Amino acid sequence: MNKVIITVVGKDTVGIIAKVCTYLAENNMNILDISQTIVSGFFNMMMIVDMSGSKVSLAEASDNFDKLGEEIGVVIKCQREEIFDSMHRI
What we know:
Blueprint: E1 3-11, H1 16-26, E2 30-39, E3 42-50, H2 58-72, E4 74-80, H3 81-87
């Protein structure tokens, strides 16, 4: 399995989850786990996604998420699970 961690942070607006999930579905990426919260008007979401069947590479998806984030006013980061784990082990 090719797991990646996707984080989405920014001011809460209508359609954030829909737009991110639409991109995932269109590119054959499967959501394995998802958590989201809103605190004082700020949206925060973390997803674990399987990219095994993806139509795009991780680098391409990351670039596309940067563009999508700009369009909807949030920051979207995408990184391999093992890198995420290593960064948060310390």
